Amino acid sequence: MLELAILGFLHETPLHGYELRRRIAALTGHVRLVAESTLYPAIKRLEKAGWLRRDTQPGAVAAPRHVLTLTAEGQAELRRRLADPAELDITDENRWFTVLAFLRHLADPAAQAAVLRRRLAFLEQPASFFYDGDRPLRAEEVDDPFRQGVLTIARATSRAELAWLRTTLTALDAKS
Questions:
Q1: Residues in the chain with pLDDT < 50?
Q2: DSSP secondary-structure letter at 19?
Q3: Which domain does 123 fall in, by range?
Q4: Which residues pair with 54 in a beta bridge?
């Protein structure tokens, strides 16, 4: 998720590490804080793979800044990751939001639709946070008001996402 976010944000514009960290935190910070001890090793891995380049620019007041730019190879890697996200990137809501945030960089509407169809198929499977044996429980079947809240909120969120997915897929199919 972190590497995808780095590639995605750098696809939009070159950034220095502080600004990149700020943007990633805005996207995922409520779920996972982005520490320098996590971000900078990831940047070094991507740089070593040839997917981004670091250029030194003079600082406005202080020391020189390192600006990160996505290479052509990095753009290709971003498109590859977006076109074929890992199963966890489809099923984990937080990882899914990262994929979704950059899916526009996958220029082919049919390829975008294929990713959305994977998410749609996942959401259409019966599921719950709570079960009676193998049977998923609905909110009205649970006595605990807090668990009812979890199920009610999850159902509303899923309905909204399903509606958005279907509408967006119709629009993407019209473009293909």
A1: none
A2: H
A3: 108-176
A4: 68
Query: In which element (H, E) is residue 57 found?
Result: strand 52-57
The verdict on 137 and 59 lying in the same domain is no
CA angle 101–107–109, rounded 5-degree value: 90
Residues 6 or more apart from 109 whose CB is under 8 A from it?
172, 173, 175, 176
Domain CATH code at residue 38 = 1.10.10.10
Given a contact cutoff of 8 angstroms between Cβ atoms, the answer to whether 46 and 140 are in contact is: no
C-alpha 25/C-alpha 27 separation (Å) is 5
Sign of CA dihedral 107, 109, 115, 120: positive
Q: Is 154 helix (H, G, I), strand (E, B) or coil?
A: helix
pLDDT tens per residue, range 75-95: 999 999 999 999 999 999 889
Instruction: Give the number of domains in the chain.
Output: 2
